[in-house]
Design goal:
alpha+beta
Length: 214
Amino acid sequence: MGAKDSMLFYADGGDVRQILRSAPAIDRDATQALVERLHPGRRVVEIGDGTLLDHAYPPEGYLYAACFPGLTVICTQDLTVDDRPSRLGGTFRAEARGRTLYLHTMLSTVDWFAYAIWDADGTLRRALSVDPDSGILENTGTPLPFEADYWAGRRPVEIDEDDPDPSYPLPFHPLEMAEDALRALFGFIYEGYVEDDDPDLDEIVLAGYRLAHH
């Protein structure tokens, strides 16, 4: 597993997967205004476009975003706050303004996965953060159905018998749960079996920006 992402999805209430499958057109003026609102005091410099396939985890100081009809997507490393998704910055949360807010982030180098959901009224519905070094970093709210098999021990980690230390400190692999979360929340995955009706992530255009100091 080598996938990594750091993303926010703001949904007006429609099916995220259906919106993405339509390869929606980006509203560039709205996207530029969004990025400027989220980073007051920073100079927002336009760079080349990216895609949801290749730019879900941009380098520090860079951001990819898109305002689509019914859906806003933001990809930036700025989302990570002490490995606890519930601590997402207030500016990002305030931007939801009556929309459902989803956070999803995973980092394959440390097998870390976290996600969170805020309802349209701003209430935190679910927040989970887990990695093999620290175990469960955060576990708030009611688990979603896609989590059930993991907590029940039905998705154990496959152990390489030739590994001198075949143990794994968790009953499941965080990145496997991370991919199932992507499927459940947004209708796509980065690694694993791609279904015929999955959105074509290479067709989901995101506007790229570099965040500079004045």
